[in-house]
Amino acid sequence: MERLARVAAAYYRHFAAVAAGRGLTLMQGKTLSLLVRPRPMRALADLLACDASNVTGIVDRLAAQDLVRREADPADRRIKNIVLTEQGERTVRHIRAELMSGLTALERLTPDERDTLHTLLGRAFPETAAPQGGTLSGGS
Amino acid sequence: MERLARVAAAYYRHFAAVAAGRGLTLMQGKTLSLLVRPRPMRALADLLACDASNVTGIVDRLAAQDLVRREADPADRRIKNIVLTEQGERTVRHIRAELMSGLTALERLTPDERDTLHTLLGRAFPETAAPQGGTLSGGS
DNA sequence: CCTAGATGGTTGATGCCTTCAAGTAATTTC
DNA sequence: GAAATTACTTGAAGGCATCAACCATCTAGG
């Protein structure tokens, strides 16, 4: 329980450090890694669990670094879809790679143990079951 | 791995919500719950993994709400020990209680499973082994 | 069609956290 | 006792969180 708090803190610090290595903040890194496919601002706000007005600023800063682009939605002109630029995709790949390489944590467990861990976390926190915002498995 | 990210996020949101219920921010709540016993500012900075200059402001705000008090250290007059006021102790108790009651998560597991989870997390993240900043077990 | 209401996004204000650089006071080291 | 450390504070600049207000657009009801 308390260990969980520490693990959570360690994870966040690690992520923030990796993002900082590329001149990004935690939220900017999180946002980038959500953009495996284009998403409207509103979707980002939901996934980041923050106010929509907040996303405006975050995307502004990402766009200022040319990592992201706003694209008008043809079907609904209110919507702006956020898309990774090529540089943005490169950055995401790098971040993901560093996240993994730095996270030797899970390699200290056997595959069986990893599976157990995953199952237990899933049982304990069913509400974290991945809506559809995952980094993979985009069943359209 | 990705599940870990979600669990971490969920944990933080929960903590922040509980703190907000008492008019506190996440960092203020964290700080309060570290004060099971008096600690110098520097120790708080280390435990919170943030800059010392930061703690000044956090403690200022807690002190302004009369939850915390600065006490001069008799042995080293540079040091200011931060102590919970009575109201601060009440607040900590409430926060801790709400944290537990809201966290039915672990009750979804059997004691055996809880133990396994704890062990696995400990093996995967040995660096989170609890220096001595815990909320209990203060073996002086 | 056309008004009323909901929805997507932006802006502005305020407050808190974060990082950095600089500064004061007290302690340690030589 | 001078020099280097250490504990804490201050100030400036940037980012995130929350809230209220605001346009533009879409959707419903008449």
Order of helices and strands of chain A: HHEHHEEHH
Proportion in β-strands of chain A = 5-15%
Largest interface: pair, residues per side: A-B, 36 and 36 residues
Overall 3D form of chain A: globular
Helix content of chain A: 55-70%
Determine Rg of chain A (CA atoms, Å).
17 Å
Structural class of chain A: mainly alpha
Number of helices of chain A: 6
Sketch the major β-sheet of chain A: 3 strands, antiparallel
Arithmetic mean of pLDDT of chain A: 86
Total beta-strand segments of chain A: 3
Short description:
The structure is a homodimer of 140-residue chains. Chain A is mainly α and 140 residues long. Chain A is 58% helix and 9% strand.
Kindly list the characteristics that best describe this protein.
homodimer; mainly alpha; 6 helices; 9% strand; globular; DNA-binding
3D architecture notes:
2 copies of one chain form a homodimer. Chain A is mainly alpha-helical and about 140 residues long. Chain A is about 60% helix and about 10% strand. Chain A has a 3-stranded antiparallel sheet. In chain A, a hairpin with a 7-residue loop joins strand 2 and strand 3 (about 80-85). The longest helix of chain A is centred in the first third of the chain and has 20 residues, at about 1-20. Residues about 130-140 of chain A have low confidence and may be disordered. The structure holds a DNA duplex (30 and 30 nucleotides).
Question: Helices, strands, pairings?
Answer:
Two copies of one chain form a homodimer.
Chain A: H1 2-21, H2 26-34, E1 39-40, H3 41-48, H4 52-64, E2 68-72, E3 80-84, H5 86-102, H6 111-124
Antiparallel strand pairs in A: 1-3, 2-3
Chain A binds a DNA duplex (30 and 30 nucleotides) through residues 25-28, 40-42, 50-58, 61, 76-80.
